[in-house]
Amino acid sequence: MTRIGADVKFTGGSSLLGADPLTTLDAVAGLGFEGILVRTVDEAFPELDPGAIGAFARAARDRGMFVQLGVGKVNPYMTAELPRVRDLGGGSYLTGMERLIRLCAEHGWTEAWTATGGFKPYPGLLGFDRFRTDADWADQLAATGDFLLALAPVLREHGVRLNIETHEEITTFEILRLIDLVGADVLGVCLDPANLVVRGEPVGPAVARVAPYTRMTHLRDAILADTGEGLSRFLMPIGQGMTDWPRLLDTLLGARPEIDLVIEGIGGSRAEMSLLPDDPRWWPAHPDMTPSDLEELRSLAARHTADAAAGRRPGLGELRRSGPAGPELRAFLGESLACLRALLDLRNPTLASEGELPTCTYPRS
């Protein structure tokens, strides 16, 4: 049976759900989840204290919960933003990453999260590492490939695989090229469907491309809205956005029936990110994108405009409002969990025929 966990971000050992990793684990279990993705491990355990990590591992086992870990990012052009990892390596970022990989292996946590960039609060396209003005994206990808090749021996030695998130700066095409370069035995995909549209990729075909390589997930929904200047992506709980979840789950679980699913929540905002296809920098930066891709994304935004006018979806103003981060995160996770369980039950002919499914608002058309 498919297990569902929650992704949790930590800062200085605490999270929005708890003052430390153990109380956070209790909170995740209390919300009904069967596992946790700690992202990242050095933020949850800043000193990498073996006793604290061991106690956390035992507590998860006692609760019957699975554990996944995140490690540092792998784009050398932005690793200076992660001084903790370099500190853990005594000045060497590579050594710090190797230390985190060995920690994963020590506890049997062999599927690890990573990413190739991070969103910045700058206007327009400059918020994405893809559009940095000091380093071309092609150069960043080349350096990322070289760094992953340097990590490959220790990954193979310890049986750990890094799973690159379908993050807002990278496309599925580019992730697959990195896997071809480094090897699927040590490199896979962490699927975040809500980020795909930010890079101009319709969700269905993109999920089909990466499903055979997907070992981890960051599941959440999204809305595409027309802002008058372009399109914007807003995060939503599963079932409350534009994603065709039955199709997504059919594709993903058809390729990876054994996968543990993880939901990534958010609180305090809807994480608006801009798509600006009329900007002259857009198309040269997306050589794999086609005009028909853009047409499909524009049709999703037009659908949102109609739904918002009819009161079926929140309008642009409501999407941009922020609330208290902690309560919103708990609500996001709880609503997403209920809907994902309903979607999984739909795949069970016995439950579906008995009409025992909870209500879920995902689009059925």
From TrEMBL:
Cited Gene3D superfamilies: Divalent-metal-dependent TIM barrel enzymes
Pfam families, sorted: AP_endonuc_2 (PF01261)
Keywords, comma-separated and alphabetical: Isomerase
SUPFAM superfamilies: Xylose isomerase-like
Domain (Xylose isomerase-like TIM barrel): residue spans on this chain: 25-271
GO molecular function: isomerase activity
InterPro entries according to UniProt: IolE/XylAMocC-like, Xyl_isomerase-like_sf, Xyl_isomerase-like_TIM-brl
Source taxon at top rank: Bacteria
Stated name of the protein: Sugar phosphate isomerase/epimerase family protein
